[in-house]
Amino acid sequence: MRPFEDSPISRDGKVLILAYDHGLEHGPVDFEEVPETMDPGNVWDIATHDAVSAMAVQKGIAEAYYPSYEDDVNLLAKLNGTSNLWMGEPDSAVNWSVDYAAELGAEAIGFTLYGGSNNEIEMAEEFRQAQEAARDYDLPVVMWSYPRGQGLKNDTSPDTIAYAARQALELGADVAKVKYPGSTDAMSFAVDMAGPTDVVMSGGSKTSDREFLENVKGAVDAGAKGLAVGRNVWQREEPEPFLDALEAVIYEETSVDEALDRI
């Protein structure tokens, strides 16, 4: 397992990944609230904030924009992803190789696994290929570990989230990106199940400043190493002050009230 603390996408052993793969995964709906975010350049500008340790994007966005930001932003290459137009059992197409991501300058790779999907076996085999290729380049591997499928009744129960974290460990991920299971105790269970694999909280749909910061605080108090967030940052009219608040909670481990004072 690659020591995450030595990775360029880590800051003092913590991480704040700004995710911007939503144009593929969700489509235009995610840009309606703040139309300026339709322009990837505006979100790359947000990613230059000191709190952001890496930017997660798909191949086309990386090709078009990363060369202009490589001195200011660490690239996390999100290797797979599928449009919301796909209506079948959860699956995710592999859209670029680790070799090409490394050639482009990626500092880490990301890969979604839908545990519980009818396509889980194929996705796990694809992850194995990506994980082993990433080792050749000494790139850390972040698994978007999202249990999902027709046989899964509750994808955010403590047991399910803990299973997702454990699956990331068992398959060789350095970092597991999982949904927040609703409490510090439940998140602590997931962190324990992940063992040496570091856990980060998935941002999810936009919520209020306080609610989101309280969830992040709960995750950090449970031992999570930070956050991978998209909409809860760039769907805000003024994302920079909110990143100031997230920086306080994640890296400085302040209270939520102290963090809110920075907004």
Order of adjacent strands in the largest pleated sheet: 1-2-3-4-5-6-7-8
Q: Taking all residues together, what is the mean pLDDT? A: 96
Tell me the helix content: 40-55%
- The helix-and-strand class reads alpha/beta
Query: Stretches where pLDDT falls below 50 for ≥5 residues?
Result: none
How would you explain this protein's 3D organization?
This protein is an alpha/beta fold and 263 residues long. 40% of the residues lie in helices and 14% in strands. The chain is built from eleven helices and eight strands. The protein has an eight-stranded parallel barrel, surrounded by seven helices. α8 packs parallel to α10. The radius of gyration is 17 Å and the shape is globular. The N and C termini lie far apart (37 Å). The mean pLDDT is 96.
